[in-house]
Amino acid sequence: MGSLLIVGKVPPPVGGVTIHVQRLLDSLVRDETAHSFYDLSSFSPVSFARAVLSASVVHLNLSNSYLLFFMTVLCKLLGRTSILTYHGNVGRWGAFRNFLDRVTLSMCSIPLVLNDASFSMVGRWNLNVQLVSAFLPPVGGEKLPDAVSLALGKFLDERTGDEVVFCTNAYDFVFDSNGDETYGILELIRLFRSLPGAQLIISDPSSAYERYLIDEQIEVPENVLLLPVPHSFFEVLKISDCLIRATTTDGDSLSVREALYLGKGVVASGCVSRPDGVITYRKLEFEELANVLEQYTPDEGARSNGPTGYDDIVSVYRLCGV
């Protein structure tokens, strides 16, 4: 049996990739699968090379194109099998970074991608590509901080009728390669000013949106709750009716998969292919989104558990002799 090295970061900070890595590690421990973990928070070329030399299979989980290129080249030079989970939509960067990703994905032993468009693209460069889900269910509970629980309880108690509770999340305040706000949070705040029959919970674990709203003196309406501290979005989904994923780019969204797993409704932009049952609207067409939200009822959308990616990843490990 080969030895397995997982490369990535775990929370903090809270993010789609760090949560994925944490749940992967928790699942491997639960299943008593032998492995080691290299934490990128303490990365250096020398320590990483030593870690790679101690393993036969290296599973890379990160989004930095330059670091991915370096690590994949090193694995190839040292004769190690490299598995690369590409967290995001392939081809979403500028010309040079997209070219670098293409070289990396062509060179690695087995690229794992998260949506159909990425699978079609990478399949032209590397015949070993596999399509997997980014979603791994949590192992055990993920308790909310007391302050978050209190804020949510107060917010939900303020409902006056049958308001639909929507939720969304953003791990940072970032813009895509076209200069558009990636998560669409500011537009959602604007939309909910005119949606009194609905509530919106915004998970802002980095506090980036809170700082921006304060600096720009943007008032948050009473039917919108901002949670600007680290917390489990999975727990927020449990008490919501529907997830809004208003992104301009995506991979296989962890949040979407979590919502499907919990049987919640999902409204998402059509920036990438979405799972069955998701209600989609055209990317950046926020008036179209507003119409969808106005007509939404909790009986709409997906109501069945979606697939998880853990079994697929373990199958790849077995293929590599782990």
TrEMBL record:
Q: Give the keywords, sorted.
A: Transferase
Which CDD domains has this protein been placed in? Answer: Glycosyltransferase_GTB-type
- Return the protein name: Glycosyltransferase
Q: Which organism is it from?
A: Sulfuriroseicoccus oceanibius
Q: State one molecular function term (GO).
A: transferase activity
Instruction: Tell me which SUPFAM superfamilies the record gives.
Output: UDP-Glycosyltransferase/glycogen phosphorylase
